[in-house]
């Protein structure tokens, strides 16, 4: 497969994979905590690193039909959430290109 390169983020608060601790996103990239995922509460992020984006598929979510792709941790292959690829409803287009990370699958590290 080749060598996997990982990004290490720098900031006061970093979200990481709960299973292997690899960095995923900065608190500055957090858009909303008001989402629901497969495992409960989920967060919407504008940017996310160290993830593998799976195949796109149509999925009927709470806010309607979307084209999404599941995302996985690049290090441990844990399913973390999904990426919005396309929104059919005009009011949902703001989500396109953004990432959902499931609260159950991530942790927040605070650096002082």
Q: What's the SSE blueprint?
A:
Elements: E1 13-17, E2 23-26, E3 30-37, E4 40-45, E5 51-61, E6 64-73, E7 79-87, E8 99-102, E9 106-110
Antiparallel strand pairs: 1-2, 1-9, 3-4, 4-8, 5-6, 6-7, 7-8
How do you describe this structure in short?
With about 110 residues, this protein is an all-beta fold.
- The CATH topology comes to Metal Binding Protein, Guanine Nucleotide Exchange Factor, Chain A
Largest sheet: 6 strands, antiparallel
Distance between the termini: 37 Å
Number of strands: 9
The overall number of domains is 1
Query: What class would the helix/strand composition place it in?
Result: mainly beta
CATH class: Mainly Beta
Note down, in words, how this protein is organized.
The chain starts with 12 loop residues before the first strand and ends with a strand. Helix content is 0%, strand content 55%. It has one domain (13-110): Metal Binding Protein, Guanine Nucleotide Exchange Factor, Chain A, CATH 2.170.150. The protein has strands spanning 13-17, 23-26, 30-37, 40-45, 51-61, 64-73, 79-87, 99-102, 106-110. The strands form two sheets. It has a six-stranded antiparallel β-sheet, with no helix packed on it. Strands 2-1-9 form a three-stranded antiparallel β-sheet, with no helix packed on it. The protein is built from no helices and nine strands. By secondary structure, it is mainly beta.
